[in-house]
């Protein structure tokens, strides 16, 4: 099918994409058509997007991000969610190591940064994410040798990439006036969201949803946002690809499908995860922390308990409940 420019523009307009950005997206898709020598880019074979972005990294790296955004929107437009999933695989956490590079310089100076990152070329957006773990192995080893574990954790704990925190989380917490009720309500909200994805045939982030996936989420009460145990909330992240994790027989592959992080996943797949310090998962703890900082309206402590990197079939974290919220009715104070 030839790209329907008029309909795609209307779709982008509904998504509040400005006309200039929409034109950029169309230019990216037209360039893809030209390189692929086809008028029909609606059903490109799996892996084609990665091959194309790796091509762009060599010839026009500045176009990679816009191209991925164009394909992400186009995938939703034509309801080819394989495109969306492939784009997210390439894009996920792409700037984390660049942010760490900058953060080391900000906190410890450029000399220390240059020592830690010497002879390392940071992989650009658009390349195969699998080999990125080789950079993580070296950087984490050097950080801990140079700064020590505590300062390395402090660097990672704020998370190396942000995300949009659910705006109603604090509001719902205050309305329910009970931590356990809030946790139960939010968990059910996630289950309902997964059920809706199954009904509509749409994606939950980068994964397809079927009955097995819904059942896994529903029967794992620690999933999003967690359960209370004393003065802590125990929370497990939604696995990156639940269905693939459930179907996989090899333990390494099960953990590979649990993990979101492109700077780690390749090592889990090839069995070299022991070469990456488990302290790297404090970045993921920081991702969880962002949510609870909003809910409690103050900074909270979040610690990794076990993760796919440490050999678990889930990524589990402990969130310390602030003292004034430890009683059930404390949200009303």
3D architecture notes:
- It is a single chain.
- The termini are far apart.
- The chain has a four-stranded antiparallel beta sheet.
- The protein is mainly alpha-helical.
- The protein has helices spanning 5-14, 19-36, 48-59, 64-78, 81-91, 96-108, 110-116, 133-147, 149-156, 169-176, 179-200, 211-218, 242-247, 251-258, 265-270, 282-296; strands spanning 227-229, 232-236, 302-306, 316-320.
- The chain is globular.
- Residues 329-333 have low confidence and may be disordered.
- Helix 1 (5-14) crosses helix 2 (19-36) and helix 2 packs across helix 4 (64-78).
- The chain folds into two domains: 5-91; 169-332, no CATH class.
- The longest helix is centred in the middle third of the chain and has 22 residues, at 179-200.
- The chain is built from 16 helices and four strands.
- Strand 1 and strand 2 (232-236) form a beta hairpin.
Characteristics of this structure?
333 residues, disordered C terminus, 55% helix, mainly alpha, globular, four-stranded antiparallel beta sheet, 2 domains, 16 helices, 4 strands, 5% strand
* Biggest beta-sheet profile: 4 strands, antiparallel
Structural class: mainly alpha
**Principal-axes shape call:** globular
Distance between the termini: 59 Å
Total of domains: 2
Provide the β-strand percentage band.
5-15%
The share of residues in helices is 40-55%
Number of strands: 4
Total helices: the number is: 16
Average the pLDDT over all residues and give the rounded result.
94
From N to C, what is the helix and strand string? HHHHHHHHHHHHEEHHHHEE
Q: Order of strands across the biggest sheet?
A: 1-2-4-3
């Amino acid at each position: 099918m030839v790209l329907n420019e008029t309909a795609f523009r209307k779709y982008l307009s509904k998504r509040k994409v400005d006309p200039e950005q929409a034109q950029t997206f169309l230019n990216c898709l037209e360039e893809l058509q030209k390189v692929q020598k086809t008028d029909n880019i609606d059903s490109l074979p799996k892996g084609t997007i990665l091959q194309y972005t790796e091509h762009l990294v060599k010839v026009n790296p500045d176009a990679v991000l816009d191209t991925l955004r164009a394909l992400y929107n186009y995938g939703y437009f034509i309801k080819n969610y394989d495109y969306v999933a492939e784009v997210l695989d390439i894009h996920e956490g792409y700037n984390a190591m660049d942010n760490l590079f900058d953060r080391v310089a900000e906190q410890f100076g450029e000399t220390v940064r240059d020592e830690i990152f010497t002879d390392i070329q940071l992989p650009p957006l658009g390349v195969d994410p699998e080999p990125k773990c080789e950079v993580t192995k070296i950087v984490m080893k050097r950080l801990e040798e140079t700064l020590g574990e505590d300062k390395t954790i402090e660097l990672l704990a704020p998370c190396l990439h942000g995300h949009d925190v659910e705006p109603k989380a604090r509001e719902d917490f205050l309305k329910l006036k009970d931590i356990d009720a809030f946790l139960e309500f939010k968990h059910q909200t996630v289950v309902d969201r997964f059920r809706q994805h199954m009904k509509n045939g749409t994606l939950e982030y980068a994964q397809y949803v079927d009955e097995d996936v819904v059942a896994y989420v529903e029967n794992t009460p620690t999933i999003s946002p967690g359960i209370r145990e004393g003065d802590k909330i125990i929370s497990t992240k939604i696995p990156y690809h639940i269905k693939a994790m459930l179907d996989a027989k090899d333990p390494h592959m099960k953990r590979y499908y649990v993990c979101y992080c492109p700077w780690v996943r390749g090592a889990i797949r090839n069995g070299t995860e022991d070469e990456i310090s488990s302290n790297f998962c404090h970045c993921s703890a920081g991702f969880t922390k962002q949510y609870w900082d909003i809910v409690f309206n103050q900074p909270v402590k979040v610690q990794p308990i076990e993760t796919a990197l440490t050999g678990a079939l889930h990524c589990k974290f402990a969130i310390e409940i602030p003292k004034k919220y430890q009683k059930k009715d404390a949200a009303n104070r």
